[in-house]
Amino acid sequence: xxxxxxxxxxxxxxxxxxxxxxxxxxxxxxxxxxxxxxxxxxxxxxxxxxxxxxxxxxxxxxxxxxxxxxxxxxxxxxxxxxxxxxxxxxxxxxxxxxxxxxxxxxxxxxxxxxxxxxxxxxxxxxxxxxxxxxxxxxxxxxxxxxxxxxxxxxxxxxxxxxxxxxxxxxxxxxxxxxxxxxxxxxxxxxxxxxxxxxxxxxxxxxxxxxxxxxxxxxxxxxxxxxxxxxxxxxxxxxxxxxxxxxxxxxxxxxxxxxxxxxxxxxxxxxxxxxxxxxxxxx
Length: 282
Prior knowledge:
Domain NERD: 56-178
Largest sheet: 5 strands, mixed
Radius of gyration: 24 Å
Helix content: 40-55%
Keywords: Membrane, Transmembrane, Transmembrane helix
Oligomer: single chain
Transmembrane segments: 6-25
Strand order of the largest sheet: 1-2-3-7-9
Distance between the termini: 75 Å
Region (Disordered): 248-282
Structural class: alpha/beta
Shape: globular
Organism: Brotaphodocola catenula
Strand content: 15-25%
């Protein structure tokens, strides 16, 4: 009888523990962290939830995904941190891509606060951070419109070399299909963009929160420029570029830093020492 009671107690304890574990798992899977680990963003980048909370760059990329994730139901594929190769052997890094039947969206993410100012043709833009009790801080960063133009040039070059077979298989008319590529510059929701061009002939500028309103009319206007098969094949072609090794990333950073140092040295005589460069040419 004593043995039976002991076994029953153990069985009840196991049931209670199983119930507690099930409840904890349910709470986790429905929490922001649990939802994060189900996303395409996590599957592509392998970033942890902790990293997007600590790393402003990673958080900005995730904000792009979160605000446009509904396009996955419309057949879109997302890619992040794409290290595209130039013919020279150097690489350029694209923060985020959305490949959709309306074209390829190339996102340059700037998770910056403060007042952002700059013109389309300026080489550098400025970020001014208001401060209480002391003078404002002003930083300079490379014009993101020009930066994304470089990314798109590299992407077009890559597609012209590698995508011919895709279009040969999917298009009966021509293997020289023109892929619509849309440049989108995205800033933090906590910045002032009154002094930057919101729309140019080559690019649009948005905040993370306004992305859906910016992308929707473009997607509607260019509907079905690409077939579902072409979207899938382009994503498959570019996916390996998102899985760069640590060594490849280090080489990229060194190459970028070399170009930045060269640019800074060339412009040292014309730039004030009170300004700091905050963003490199990627």
